[in-house]
């Protein structure tokens, strides 16, 4: 009788088993712990997170040199996280942040990764969101919208997409950052929108998710960017929403209960927002999804308004109202994922009690994952209610003191700051 052949695992399978083992160990310890210990483990360590974030805004060590071209992103990750936690920076730190971001603003429009650096759509998005999060008149008035619009037009590509920077790559991320910034600043128009829907539609894959560019693999970050962009330009019905829904709900991992970014990939705390955000947006599109199920060809040439709200789309679309009005559309379905289980993953596996959040057990904390884990946690908490009304206690994992500020799911800034910015720039 031949001896059994040892099971050969790929590197991905080995990593998956290691993650499942670590997560299972944490969950088992939690379930065996006394009630008082469980309550502590599920508590959001708010003060520790705020201290970690504020320290980062004041000073970064030499290891952050590798992020020299991403400094507006660091500002955004930290400022947004602090705002989600219901806090704000003091007047001196706010003034320093505005001054720094203003020095990142290129004379020709847009923001670079640091003073004197090439303007880039990603860091432009981060800088604008940072200033929207600060929310003061000084912060919002520091944005040169006229020159920023010129920069956005320069990045526009004949395919309908956008380049990230001069002669840079064209992808769905560039489309989102350009359209999101233009929308919240009230400078979105037909010229910027032209053929964007064609480009993003070409990036939806056979799985249902959206890739970064045509022919690539569906990815959670790009799926959020593509879906949010099409909502903002009033063309979301061009997507196959049913297959997108099927793809995203299966990205919540079984044992871990966090989200993975792609099929057969490891769970990662940041997808709590990227995939959770997709689910949050799809909840508001449930009628559109049902319509597509009945009429599979309905997405050809149709838009959000004509099939969902009865608005006559023969009139000229005011794109700058779309993001404002969409959020008022009450969710008409239950959460599309296990919200409490995802909150448990964030609090038990992604949270570092001393301050900061991380990708998964065994990984270090960082500002990026702190930002997107907290954004995802906020979406979870409000998944059974609207952003302008408090959730019921049973919707919040752990003590009710864990409740964060609601996040606007199209822009990923605190809901109140987004509405204030939309109102501020409407008058410009």
From TrEMBL:
BP GO annotations: prenylation
Top-level taxon: Eukaryota
EC class of the enzyme, as a word: transferase
GO (cellular component) term, any one: protein farnesyltransferase complex
Reaction catalyzed: L-cysteinyl-[protein] + (2E,6E)-farnesyl diphosphate = S-(2E,6E)-farnesyl-L-cysteinyl-[protein] + diphosphate
Cofactor: Zn(2+)
Matches recorded under SUPFAM superfamilies: Terpenoid cyclases/Protein prenyltransferases
Keywords carried by this UniProt record: Metal-binding, Prenyltransferase, Repeat, Transferase, Zinc
CC cofactor note: Binds 1 zinc ion per subunit.
Keyword Chaperone found: no
GO molecular function: protein farnesyltransferase activity; zinc ion binding
EC number annotated for this UniProt entry: 2.5.1.58
InterPro entries cross-referenced by the UniProt entry: FTB, PGGT1B-like, Prenyltrans, Terpenoid_cyclase/PrenylTrfase
Family, as annotated: Belongs to the protein prenyltransferase subunit beta family.
Function: Catalyzes the transfer of a farnesyl moiety from farnesyl diphosphate to a cysteine at the fourth position from the C-terminus of several proteins. The beta subunit is responsible for peptide-binding.
Record's subunit section: Heterodimer of FTA and FTB.
Identification of the protein by name: Protein farnesyltransferase subunit beta
